[in-house]
Design goal:
Layout (H helix, E strand, L loop, with lengths): L7 H4 L7 E4 L5 E11 L3 E8 L2 E8 L4 H17 L7 E6 L6 E6 L5 E2 H7 L2 H20 L2 E3 L7 E3 L5 E3 L5 E3 L6 H13 L4 H4 L6 H7 L5 H25 L7 E6 L2 E6 L4 H11 L8 E4 L4 E8 L2 E8 L4 H8 L4 H14 L7 E9 L2 E10 L4 E2 H7 L3 H16 L12 E4 L2 E4 L11 H16 L4 H10 L6
Helix pairs in contact: 3-4, 4-7, 5-8, 8-11, 13-14
């Protein structure tokens, strides 16, 4: 390999595996699995170094040496402080290339904290959170603070040890992190979790406070909560904006009068073949779920997957004129569905959003999502009126209000329920009002509309769960 030969691991999103990575010291790593990829910037993979399994962090670009040094500095600081982290085995570079390489012990069978948390039942989640708070406290005491807190930056080993990774994400100081910076950092942590987690039990911060030698106080909890809420809202906006630009998660393109935003895991060729074959209309064998002037909703197959398509129609020339200059309802639903991820409110995964475009002018629009599995809450609750089911549905309604979100149409059919999940649909009216009074008024209206779905005892039970005052 010469300086003029560019390898696909340097720039491509599609890297053929396995591949050989020659190192400056003469060794060659046999890379077998891609763990993280930022084309042209960073590549993390599992590799073989002789008979040993290692984790490789490859830094690309003009700042690769500086970024690798900062990463290694933070990892060494954690190792010196006795904080669990994969051992740094070596610092080197790619042969004949200006790319820095860090080699770490590979923890086989490890899961990210996010994966472990998602899969764990509630009691185990509490234990995992306590473990994470103790680890973060140790980092703060050692002068380490994460710039962009991320739950995937912690790995749970099969033996139960929680490890910190990704030293490049840390600010390293020579003194313990102070109270103000610690509160902001804890806000980032809890901002990645459902809002209820911080308020679900008393003394939730105790493991962190005891490790730092700090006293518990209501004001400290309130400050962490405010920081978490602010971070969660910023993260929701950031996630929503990503859906309109090319990145590792999304592909945005134009195709013969159409603007298409889609998830990268949805095969482009499958979507294009479906568009060509159907003309974006229900085809033979499809199930029409909702015919109508304003919307047509149907279930169809796209490649190997079953999906739901919602087409937003133009009822007349006046609406067509108005729609040409405003955001489409499909675009609002696409954005809102991605925002809900940050608030941990379940909705069918949005796969693609398509708009008819004539220059900057819009016409019809389509939203393609996974199929929501289950039945509308109007049917499910009547057939399964157990307390747990009512509590799950009420908790979803409450989650909107607690996060300052307004759904806009809380009829029971917009909540799809199964035995382990509540999914919210029909998101084109969802918004977060700018002012607190407007939020309170709209949330009150949302909950009052929700209660109109129920009569008699069911209504009374939901009213108690939502706290009353919405009759």
């Amino acid at each position: 390999m010469t300086d003029t030969q560019q390898q696909d691991w340097e720039y491509s999103r599609e890297i053929a595996l396995p591949f050989e990575l020659p190192l400056e010291d003469g060794r060659s790593l046999h890379c077998e699995e891609i763990l993280r990829l930022l084309p042209g910037r960073r590549l993390v993979c599992r590799a073989r170094d002789g008979h040993a399994q290692v984790l490789v962090k490859l830094f690309l670009g003009e700042n690769s040496a500086r970024e690798a040094q900062a990463d290694a500095k933070a990892v060494r600081a954690m190792m010196d402080a006795g904080i669990a982290t994969p051992i740094l085995r070596g610092e080197t570079s790619v042969r004949t290339k200006p790319h820095s390489v860090l080699l770490f012990d590979f923890i086989s069978g490890a899961r990210s904290f996010r994966q472990a948390w998602t899969a764990a039942p509630a009691p185990q989640q509490e234990a995992l959170l306590d473990k994470l708070l103790c680890l973060v406290a140790a980092q703060h005491q050692a002068g380490l603070r994460q710039r962009d807190f991320h739950l995937n930056n912690f790995l749970l080993a099969p033996d139960g040890t929680l490890n910190a990774i990704d030293g490049g994400d840390f600010v390293v100081t020579s003194t313990p992190i102070g109270r103000r910076a610690a509160i902001a950092n804890l806000g980032f942590l809890f901002g990645h979790l459902p809002r209820r987690v911080l308020h679900a039990r008393a003394q939730v911060l105790r493991p962190y406070l005891e490790a730092r030698g700090w006293e518990e106080s209501a004001s400290l909890l309130a400050r962490v909560s405010a920081a978490a809420d602010a971070f969660r809202q910023r993260r929701a906006r950031r996630i929503a904006r990503k859906g309109y630009r090319n990145c590792s998660e999304f592909l945005v393109r134009r195709k013969t009068g159409l603007r298409i935003c889609q998830r990268r895991e949805l095969p482009r060729q499958d979507l294009d073949a479906w568009v060509t074959a159907t003309g974006l209309a229900p085809a033979d064998g499809d199930t029409v779920l909702k015919p109508g002037n304003s919307q047509t909703v149907w279930r169809t197959r796209l490649g190997d997957a079953e999906v739901v398509v919602k087409r937003y129609n133009l009822k007349n020339w006046l609406q067509a004129l108005r729609r040409a200059f405003t955001r489409s309802r499909a675009s609002r639903s696409w954005e809102n569905a991605h925002q809900l991820r940050a608030y941990h409110i379940a909705t069918p995964r949005p796969l693609a959003m398509i708009e008819e475009r004539w220059g900057p002018l819009r016409r019809r629009a389509w939203l393609i999502t996974d199929v929501a599995r289950g039945a509308g809450a109007n049917r499910y609750i009547v057939e399964h009126p157990e307390d747990g089911n009512l509590q799950r549905l009420a908790a979803t309604v409450m989650a909107f209000g607690e996060n300052g979100l307004v759904h806009g149409d809380m009829k029971a059919t917009n909540f799809i329920m199964s035995e382990d999940r509540v999914e919210v649909i029909d998101l084109d009216s969802m918004r977060r009002p700018l002012t607190a009074p407007a939020r309170r008024a709209r949330i009150h209206r949302d909950r009052r509309r929700f209660l109109q779905n129920w009569k008699g005892e069911l209504r009374q039970r939901f009213q108690r769960l939502l706290g009353g005052g919405f009759g």
